[in-house]
Amino acid sequence: MQNKNKNIKSQLFKVGFFFLIVGIIVFVSTPLRKLKGDVFEEMRLAIFQLNINEDNTTINDVNTENLEVTPENTEVAEENDKKANYSYIGQLSIPKINLKRGFVSKESRYNNIEYNVTIANEADYPDVPRGNFILMAHSGNAYISFFDKLYRLEIGDEASVSYNAVTYNYRLTNIYNQAKTGTVAIYRNPAVKTLTLITCTHNDDYNQTIYIFEEI
Amino acid sequence: MDLSLIQQFLTFITLPFQSFLTIEILLIFIIIYLFLIINEKRQNNKVRIALTALIIFLFSLLVFYFSNDMIDVLSEIIRTLMRCFYFPNIIFYILTTVISLIILIYTLFKSHQTKLNKIITYTLTLIHLYLFTNFISLAITTNLSLIDTANIYQHDNMFVIVLSSQIIFIILIIYKVIYHFCYIRHEKLKNKQ
Questions:
Q1: Which of A15, B14, B88, B180 could form a disulfide with B92 if both were Cys (CB 3.0 to 4.6 A apart)?
Q2: A2-57+70-215 CATH
Q3: Inter-residue contact A145 to A97 (CB < 8 Å)
Q4: Out of A141-145, A197-201, B55-59, B175-179, which region has the weakest mean confidence (pLDDT)?
Q5: Average pLDDT across chain B, whole number
Q6: What residues of chain B lie within 8 A of the CB of A47, using their CB?
Q7: Is A152 an 8 Å CB contact of chain B?
């Protein structure tokens, strides 16, 4: 009888231990995936910075005799573009919330909210005069919630965008919410170059928040 | 940072008396220390339990007051571990290889080990060393500088080799730890019998 009780206790202990392990794995999997994403992002940014430095070195050695674009050059460039579809073309930094994320070109299939901070189709690139560079990302607890800390920003906070080896500095001038309807209206000063960040409103399932930064 | 040795010593001495809180902390730790020493003579189990509870309570209090910072610190620790696993720098990678090599040589000359253990250890360590050799030869053939970590991992081949090595190394370490625990336990049981 005692042996039987011991066996049942032992079985219960094993089942309990199994569920405990499964519970811990389920509980920590999302934060761990987010941290893994952060680590990979750091490396992608480091590679991006490395390539910028290499490009800058190459710029000093440009041979002006070969500046003509030939069909062969175009083919090589297209081939390289296909290979480098996850290569970052720039980087967004917001020091206050310790945010550093790269972004890919609009044409890349990784310019998608499920992979990266995404450039909106309607956006101008940062080098366009008086243009509006629009970036979107998820917020919340998922590992792809790249804009999860944007709600901590206040008017006057600064952000910078590195693009084509040039850094553009911006200051936050306006924050407003809009209902999630699938589209968003952007209210900005058209005379100034702006950076617009769009994400879901913190702790609110029905609204999205728009952050308007103006170039300093 | 630029203090002389005497200034560092003086700062250390005056540190506990800088505020009322630091004096309180000092007193709490002196009391815990005295209780631990006195209890070593008396061997009172209740005091042991009370002291353990007190120390846990004190540290829980710290964790409670600095919970946000604690989460950040914990995240940073995990992030550092992940960096070491996915993108180790060359020093860390060489260090794992040296450990692997030491384990291999130790197993080679240790006679009181089972054959199965030796075979598993040889397999894992040799795969690890083979991958490291591949890594070095690839770096030489592609004329790659190993000093900059990003420079290494922009090549997919390098990333795959290092990641495989890390997985093998972790399996080896886990295996060794489990084996030694089982071995020690087995030896103890044997001695008891």
A1: B88
A2: 2.40.260.10
A3: no
A4: A141-145
A5: 86
A6: 150, 153-154
A7: no
Handedness of CA A119, A122, A124, A129 (dihedral sign): negative
Structural contact between residues A123 and A132, judged by C-beta atoms closer than 8 angstroms: yes
Average pLDDT, chain A: 77
Q: Are A116 and A145 in contact (CB under 8 A)?
A: no
- A49 to B150: CB separation less than 8 angstroms, yes or no: yes
A42 in contact with B, Cβ within 8 Å: yes
By three-state DSSP, how is residue B132 classified?
helix
B→A contacts (Cβ < 8 Å), by residue, are: 75, 78-79, 82-83, 86-87, 148-151, 153-154
Taking the alpha carbons of B169, B174, B175, B180 in that order, is the dihedral positive or negative? positive
Complete DSSP assignment for A111-150: -STTTS-EE-TTPPPTTSTT-EEEEE---SSSTT-TTTTG
Residue carrying the six token digits 């934060």: A31
Query: Is A28 near chain B, with CB under 8 Å?
Result: no
Nearest to A86 by CA among A48, A124, A60, A56: A48
Q: In whole angstroms, give the CA distance from residue A210 to residue B12.
A: 51
- How far is residue B117's CA from residue B107's CA, in Å, rounded to a whole number? 9
Q: Is 90 exceeded by the pLDDT of residue A5?
A: no
Q: Is A50 on the interface with B (CB under 8 A)?
A: yes
Tell me if residue A214 falls in helix, strand or coil: strand
Residues B72 and A21: their CA atoms lie apart, in Å, by 24
Task: Kindly list the domain boundaries of chain A, sorted by start residue.
Answer: 2-57+70-215
Per-domain residue ranges of chain B: 5-65, 88-192
Q: Which residues contact B151 (CB under 8 A, 6 or more apart)?
A: A50, B144, B145
Model ipTM value:
0.71
* CB atoms near residue B152 (< 10 Å): 25
Non-local (6+) Cβ contacts of A178 within 8 A are: A184, A185, A207, A208, A210
| Comparison of pLDDT for A102 and B127, the residue scoring more | B127
pTM over 0.80: no
Structure tokens at B154: 């922009």
